[in-house]
Write a structure and sequence with these properties.
alpha+beta; five-stranded mixed beta sheet; 17 helices; 10 strands
């Protein structure tokens, strides 16, 4: 079947940030969807049966289709909860969110709760903008053991829990099963090691057909990070005090990317990955809808590590966070909604309708017969937030992109280039620690 190429609108985030989709506009719970007759009747019954009503303000940047699903779940909660709680949701682009929220907290008129992603957390952590919400896991009706332990830990900063999971996203290895089969490769299982990815990229590449074996873009730090993870390396150590771009692991990672660049198109956009001309690549779960729409017979799994190494992954958590200006009464009301969100049914619904991994064990169980969806949850068990204290984007322009351009485009000597940019990264880490 001839494949139809369509444009994919990727989620707007920093360096691998996936918190929400693009778009613009602002809406509230009442003016975006309107309540059905049943919802109105349920709300009236709730008001009659409950005590004083509580209205909660809720800011986030989910401005696209996933925001519509979020609004539906908010509406369902408003109609069904027995605490007389009503949530009014205000949706805005993330740039506007991050411009308005600090000022609102300073002025004392911040929303009761927000959604925030790891790409945006560092300045809020530095300013102590959010309350500790660790006591949520002790709340009646909350099964703390249903959360992957690593998932909970991702939203702790310096021992303080500043977010409760709402969404977890990682990156994955995709391969085109038809191209694999035509090349005599294992189409059902794909590669099991990073070395196999490199070998398969060479076999899959046929530039006369505009067919390529992998994606290496010097401006994209995601593939760089996964090459480092594959060799047991990273950009820096865990506490972000020491740059590690010139280690043996980093030299092996960058050397493999240099070779893989021979099997990569020079220019890439979103359509490249859904065109049927990419044998294998690393990307996020948002690409799946485009692959399906274009009839790509694909496989997906966690990105394989090099032989003898443990796998690594970036996880981009989105958490429910509560500003320091929120009262204790409203904080407890927020917890009621967050508890409602983190039920098996709603976690399963979000995964089905938005394509993000299930992070509750009970929801994961609902996808045990769906290999594709189950594969998306695997990196959540061991992944980490990249440069959690400083954010990857703070290093991208001055370190990561020019380093990769020097190696890939200018054929610079790898060890000396890594020494040069490791020193620059170290300067940045030292400055950030002051």
């Amino acid at each position: 079947m001839k494949k139809r190429v369509v444009a994919i609108v990727l989620a707007a985030m920093t360096a691998a940030s996936l918190a929400a989709c693009g778009g613009s506009g602002s809406s509230s719970a009442t003016d975006q969807t309107g309540a059905s007759t049943d919802q109105a009747e349920a709300s009236a019954d709730k008001a009659e049966a409950s005590g004083e009503p509580i209205t909660l303000s809720f800011w986030n940047g989910f401005t696209s289709g996933d925001g519509e699903v979020l609004q539906q779940i908010v509406d369902d909660f408003n109609a069904s909860n027995d605490k007389n709680i009503t949530i009014e949701m205000d949706v805005m682009p993330w740039d506007s969110f991050n411009e308005k929220l600090p000022a609102a907290i300073t002025a004392g008129n911040a929303p009761d709760f927000v959604l925030c992603s790891s790409g945006y957390y560092p300045p809020y952590v530095k300013e102590n903008s959010f309350q500790d919400v660790s006591d949520f896991y002790e709340m009646d009706g909350v099964n703390a053991d249903d959360f992957e332990e690593n998932v909970k830990d991702l939203l702790y900063y310096d021992g303080k829990c500043i977010g409760i999971p709402m969404q977890m996203v990682s990156h994955y290895f995709f391969w085109d099963k038809d191209l694999y089969e035509a090349a005599g490769l294992d189409a059902e299982n794909g590669p099991s090691t990073w070395e196999e990815i490199v070998e398969n990229a060479k076999i899959l590449t046929d530039k006369s057909k505009n067919q390529y074996g992998f994606n290496v873009d010097p401006a994209d730090n995601v593939v760089l990070q996964y090459a480092l993870f594959a060799q047991g390396g990273d950009l820096c150590n865990a506490d972000e005090t020491e740059a590690t771009l010139n280690t043996d692991a980093a030299v092996a990672a960058i050397s493999s990317l240099k070779e893989l660049s021979n099997y990569s198109p020079k220019d890439m956009d979103d359509n490249t990955f859904i065109s049927g001309q990419m044998g294998q690549f690393i990307n996020g779960p948002w690409i799946i809808s485009g692959l399906r729409e274009n009839d790509i017979n694909f496989g997906v799994k966690a990105v394989p590590a090099a032989e003898g190494k443990d796998p690594g992954a970036v996880v981009i958590p989105v958490g429910f966070s509560i500003p320091v200006t929120t009262s204790e009464e409203h904080k407890q009301a927020v917890y009621e909604f967050v508890k409602y969100w983190n039920t098996t049914d709603n976690c399963t619904r979000w995964t089905k309708e938005c394509g993000t991994p299930a992070y509750l064990k009970s929801a994961e169980e609902n996808f045990k017969d769906d290999p594709l969806t189950s594969a998306l949850s695997v990196p959540l068990q061991y992944g980490h937030v990249a440069c959690k204290k400083n954010g990857v984007s703070s290093f991208k322009t001055d370190v990561l992109q020019p380093m990769m351009e020097a190696v890939i485009n200018d054929n610079a000597d790898i060890p000396s280039t890594l020494d040069k940019y490791n020193a620059i990264l170290q300067e940045k880490l030292d400055k950030a620690a002051q």
